[in-house]
Every structure is written in structure tokens, then in C-alpha cells.
């Protein structure tokens, strides 16, 4: 399975108003999750979220590509 680079957010319980609406919803959830966290708590939250999502993906080829692409802009 190749790394998906196009917007791929969806909510099976909602019909989006615009194609990018589910991505906006995710961004809002992420910002809300960080609200009132210290910098250390925020970093721990991000690390845990990354590990949970990586485990969900599970495909090392996809994860390797994601890490490489993320490193291109770091």
C-alpha cells in the first residue's frame, strides 16, 4: 500500500460540506486536544498519537516513506 498524499479525511456519519471540511474538523480536534497542555504535555501527546496511528497503519513500507517525507521539510 503506497503512502496516501491526497486528502483522505472522512467521517462516515457526516456528509462533508466541502472536500476539505473533514480535514478542517481533524485540525480543530487536534488543536482542542492541545489546549491547556504545557509544552512537555503537548510533546508527550504528539508522541503517543504518532505511535498509536503508526500502529494502526502497521505497514512498515508506508511508515518508512512517511518518515522520509516528513524529514524532507524538517
Describe the structure concisely:
The protein has helices spanning about 20-35, 40-55, 60-70.
Walk me through this protein's architecture.
The protein contains three helices and no strands. By secondary structure, it is mainly α. The protein has a domain at 38-74.
Features:
0% strand; mainly alpha; 74 residues; globular
Helix vs. strand class: mainly alpha
Low-confidence stretches: none
In total, the number of strands is 0
State Rg: 14 Å
Q: What is the mean predicted local confidence, pLDDT? A: 89
Can you lay out the helices and strands and say which pair or pack?
Blueprint: H1 21-34, H2 39-57, H3 60-72
